[in-house]
Specification:
Layout (H helix, E strand, L loop, with lengths): L5 E5 L6 H15 L5 E5 L5 H8 L4 E5 L16 H6 L4 E4 L2 H6 L4 H13 L3 E6 L3 H5 L3 H12 L5 H4 L2 E5 L13 H19 L1 H6 L2 E4 L7 H5 L6 E4 L6 H8 L3
Parallel strand pairs: 1-2, 1-8, 2-3, 3-4, 4-5, 5-6, 6-7, 7-8
């Protein structure tokens, strides 16, 4: 297995520029000897500030979303061209908050995925089921649909720039975490779906992160699972004292 652990921090809609600068600087100091791949994704308004601080370090710069169009009359949206201009390397797409709070469907997410890949970005594609979907026994069905539709029209070469993040919606920000065994089962399943779409080699290479109440206390146990290749961290990424231990899990 030649997959490397990838720990990403999604800062969501938190922090002023000053707070973002302080957090970024602390992470640069604390993670400079870290052995894994790291990313932080600040709010759009804080990207330029954070970019200047993490440039040339081992921390990648991410954005939490992008518009589905390259440019034009799209009031309130942010384009891939603008993100590239700020030094963004990775875009998180299909996060459950975008799907459920802002009603983004698979077709819209797929449009964004293809546009981001076309412009050379790495994409973290988020998938995951609601609590009622899990209780109805639809975990695999939901995750398969979101994976297949999210990657529609993406070729095997482009897939090399795709990371999948499995985030059970019922575990995001709730303090509930899927057990490592539950999470692993879904990761195994999603890897099979990728294998069916793109072949075994692509399936063995793709990074699949887990997201959903990842904390210093459970990070190592989750990462010990064979098919869990990292974490997409929400709340715990906003403080160095919680993000650094996750990022440096042993």
């Amino acid at each position: 297995m030649n997959r490397h652990y990838y720990i990403a921090g999604n800062w969501k809609m938190f922090n002023t520029r000053a707070q973002s600068a302080q957090l970024a600087q602390e992470l640069v100091n604390e993670l400079k000897d870290g052995k894994h791949k790291y990313l932080v994704a600040p709010s759009f308004t804080n990207i330029e500030t954070v970019s200047a601080i993490i440039q040339g370090t081992n921390i990648r710069l991410g954005a939490q979303n992008c518009a589905p169009e390259e440019q034009g009359a799209h009031t309130g949206e942010v384009s891939v061209l603008q993100l590239k201009d700020l030094g963004v390397e990775t875009i998180i797409l299909g996060h459950s908050e975008r799907r459920h709070s802002y009603k983004e469907d698979d077709a819209l997410i797929n449009k964004k995925v293809k546009l981001a890949l076309k412009h050379g970005f790495e994409v973290i594609l988020c998938i995951g089921e609601l609590l009622e979907e899990r209780e109805a026994g639809k975990v695999e069905e939901v995750c398969e649909t979101q994976t297949v539709k999210g990657l529609e029209g993406v070729n095997v070469l482009e897939l090399g720039n795709v990371v999948i993040a499995y985030e059970p919606v019922w575990a995001i920000g709730t303090g509930k975490t899927a057990t490592p065994q539950d999470a692993e089962a879904v990761h195994v399943f999603v890897r099979k779906v990728i294998g069916r779409l793109y072949g075994e080699d692509a399936a063995s290479k793709i990074i699949i992160q887990y997201g959903g109440s990842v904390k210093p206390e459970n990070a190592a146990e989750l990462m010990a699972m064979e098919n869990i290749d990292g974490a997409l961290v929400g709340g715990a990424s906003l403080k160095p004292e919680s993000f650094v231990p996750i990022a440096k899990f042993a």
